[in-house]
């Protein structure tokens, strides 16, 4: 056979996949302690980090590992739990926003200290500041190439409706 199984491309991607799986497994156990799945945590964190704590459902799908229908199911479940709510988009009746609620922010406040501790111990703390900067830039380059929708909704195109 002419395939070189020692090809550094296999090694690079294999190491990335193994590191990601290891980190994901460590984080999942901590999320479960707070009654969240990893995807629910991702949704809450992305909403909390977005302008006005909201994203269009299609943008949320583009920023996560979920399909549009998958994001709808997760948001509907989280809506029933009071962690997020859906809002109609005033400029496009076909679109709606997912918005993190006070209960969702409170759940993040419970989860984040332990999550940050795990990230520091098993991810950030394993790298020097220069390595972390270079790694982050490399990941952004790859992300932008394979998932150009990942930054959709990160700027605020329209103001939120006035609260009454």
TrEMBL record:
Native organism taxonomy: Bacteria, Bacillati, Actinomycetota, Actinomycetes, Micromonosporales
Superkingdom in the source lineage: Bacteria
GO molecular function, one term: DNA-binding transcription factor activity
UniProt cross-references to InterPro entries, sorted A to Z: HTH_MarR-typ, MarR/SlyA-like, WH-like_DNA-bd_sf, WH_DNA-bd_sf
Single biological process term from Gene Ontology: response to stress
Protein name: DNA-binding MarR family transcriptional regulator
UniProt keyword list: DNA-binding
HTH marR-type domain boundaries: 6-144
